[in-house]
Please model this.
Amino acid sequence: MNGGEEHSFEQPRASWRRHVVLAVVICAGLGLSLVGFAVVRGTEQRQTQMVFDHEADGLTSVTELDLETCSQELAALGRFYDGSKLVDREEFLAFVGPVLARHAGIYAFEWLPRVAAAERSAHEQTAREDGIDGYRINQRQAQGALAPAASRQEYFPVAYAEPLENNRTVLGFDCGS
Model:
């Protein structure tokens, strides 16, 4: 019987040792998994950041180039006006039409003259004679609707806009209102 009693004490010890070994193996596996996860996650985050930075740098360069191009085209339009005595609607279209065709990033060109209060009626009449039916210098009311601009010393209406069909509704809008 002594042999049997010894065996009964050995069995709980062996069972206890197996549980300890199993717990150590599980903890080691879990620890290694967490370390592996952290390493892989860090590597993926660095790679993702590198790709993002590369793409952002490319887009920044393209945007800067587009802005520089737009600025040059706008400066050329300014020189065109400075070198002309009078730029009518057809000349404006002839100058900006090819620019708009070359640069998809430029949606419109507009010309806003300074119109003194004494010149308002003549300015509106000239625009109507140029084919802009119902042209008047206007402003937005509190509700958002357009109404004739209030009396003031000067106005800055959108006189020309190209492409005209996409921008007809802005004609006459006083940007100084």
